[in-house]
Design brief:
5 strands; five-stranded parallel beta sheet; alpha/beta; 191 residues; single chain; binds adenosine-5'-diphosphate; 9 helices
């Protein structure tokens, strides 16, 4: 099984690249952001728990996020591999994911981290906010909070995988196809 953590700050293009990766390599794409947005839309219990955090640009509590992720992995036992988009976002989540996957003998293969300057991130997110309807992409203060939360709580997750020699840093700027071909070079070696 090929399990890839696609990593990077908000607006780094994880969702866009994950869709292309899942098509080319036939991997299951799991986006925690999409799962939460769906849960909110459907007014599920989990959606109600997540809503206030997402609106402020804070992280949803680890126990909610980890429980949701474990359930989705267990619902898809036959897949060739998984692209984790937006998860893990804290070291606690990364540790929990390792325990969960290692127990199934399906460890994380690589973390692919997309690097984008903060100026470019804010520009992209405000642009996305214009047509996506995502409230968390419309307000500069909320965007800045998400970037702060990323720097404080999520960046250490890169070191977590680096210590396991699984981290690959890639430039996340350029055209969508240019970035995808950088990712494909990494995946072609392991798939
Ligand atoms: P982006 O990468 O642009 O911030 P996402 O769609 O990945 O967007 O996430 C949207 C929001 O969902 C985050 O700001 C956060 O509130 C919540 N979220 C997503 N993934 C996680 C996670 N792994 N842990 C906690 N909260 C999460």
């Amino acid at each position: 099984m090929i399990n890839i953590v696609l990593f990077g700050p908000p607006g780094s293009g994880k969702g866009t690249q994950a869709v292309k990766m899942s098509e080319k390599y036939e991997l299951l794409h799991i986006s925690t952001g999409d799962l939460f947005r769906n849960a909110i839309k459907n007014e599920t219990e989990m959606g109600l728990k997540a809503k206030a955090f997402i609106e402020k640009g804070d992280l949803v509590p680890d126990e909610v996020t980890i429980g949701m992720m474990n359930a989705v992995i267990d619902e898809n036992p036959e897949v060739k591999g998984i692209i984790f988009d937006g998860f893990p976002r804290t070291v606690t989540q990364a540790e929990a994911l390792d325990v969960f996957l290692n127990a199934k003998d399906k460890p994380i293969s690589k973390m692919i981290a997309l690097e984008v300057t903060e100026e470019e991130l804010i520009k992209r997110l405000l642009n996305r906010g214009k047509d996506s309807g995502r409230a968390d992409d419309k307000d500069v203060a909320i965007i800045k909070n998400r970037i702060d939360v990323y720097n404080e709580k999520t960046l250490p997750v890169a070191s977590f995988y680096d210590k396991q020699n699984k981290l690959v840093n890639l430039k996340g700027e350029g055209t969508i196809d240019e970035i995808f071909s950088r990712i494909a070079k990494v995946l072609d070696i392991i798939v």
